[in-house]
Amino acid sequence: MKYTATLLLVAGFAVLVAGQFRCPEKDGQYEDEEQCDKYYNCVDGEAEEMLCDDGLVFDSFKRGSHKCDHQANVECEERTLLQPPQGNTECRRKNGFFEHPVESNCHMFVTCIDGQANYNQCPAKLVFDEKSGVCAWPENVNRVGCVREEALDDGFVCPKEKQFSRDGNTEAHPRYPHPDCQKFYICLNGVTPREHGCALGEVYNADTKQCDAPENVEDCADFYDDHPLVGKQKEVGDRTVFKSE
Questions:
Q1: Residues 206 and 160 in one domain
Q2: Cβ atoms of 47 and 23 closer than 8 Å
Q3: Whole-number Å distance between alpha carbons of 83 and 81
Q4: What is the rounded CA–CA span in Å between residue 58 and residue 51?
Q5: In a domain, 175, yes or no
Q6: What are the tens digits of pLDDT across the range 27-72?
Q7: DSSP characters for 69-135?
Q8: Which of 87, 89, 181, 231 is found 20 to 30 A from 239 (Cα to Cα)?
Q9: Is 205:211 a contact under the CB 8 Å cutoff?
């Protein structure tokens, strides 16, 4: 019985030794065989166990002393284990690029740096691919139920109907009138709304889709009548002046 217990003790010690990382002759940083965000810093044959910041993984091919990088940039292969997540409601892990919390919102994604979330938007017609960490064509990304609808703070959403130029071609960045005569909307690639404005003294002409003089736009003819800097023109002697004068 005593002999058996001794054998078990020796066997356990052998497993422990086999599981310990042994430094190569050359000093440096070396990956763990099982955990992708764990590595060992070897100095004079002594190994110090290290962890990348949560969300980053170790890349032995990366130059420099800091070899941790985003998961999308590293092939972990068989090193499938990771440390427990330390994220929050917006960031699943403290660092990385993640899908928008709303699953149907495929064109936006979250960039997390040390737990701080920043929301980003893919260009028109592209969706975010978390695996590669970049925006890609929908047919190359396995995401379903995507709905792209972008709105400005005032509620404006780009109309789904295409707008055509005088020569019959589809407008790449169509323009639309704004309730404020001096302003107008531009829909980048037909889906991303932006607010723009005409120069002081001009209004947007929905017929020509250009900025124009107020007298050429019936609904905005008196837009500047009470403006302190522009105002309506008036006759003073033999001169035509503005209110500001």
A1: yes
A2: yes
A3: 7
A4: 8
A5: yes
A6: 999 999 999 999 999 999 999 999 999 999 999 998 878 899 999 9
A7: EEGGG---TT--B-PPP---SS-SSSSEEEE-SSTT--SEEEEEETTEEEEEEPPTT-EEETTTTEE
A8: 181
A9: yes
SS3 (DSSP) at 202: coil
DSSP letter for each residue of 225-240: TT-SSS---EEETTEE
71 φ, ψ to 5°? Answer: -60, -35
162 plus 240 within the same structural domain: yes
- With a threshold of 0.85, does the pTM exceed it? no
pLDDT digits (tens, 9 = 90+) for 155-171: 898 888 888 888 888 88
Cα separation, 158 vs 124, in Å, equals 12
Structure-block tokens of residue 158? 């780009």
Domain co-membership, 194 together with 104: no
**3-state SS class at 2:** helix
Distances (CA, A) of 157 to 185, 193, 203: 10, 7, 21
| pLDDT tens-digit readout, 113-136 | 999 999 999 988 899 999 999 999
Co-location of 204 and 113 in the same domain: no
Cα–Cα distance measured from residue 107 to residue 158, given in angstroms and rounded to the nearest whole number: 15
**Phi, psi of 243, deg, nearest 5:** -55, -40
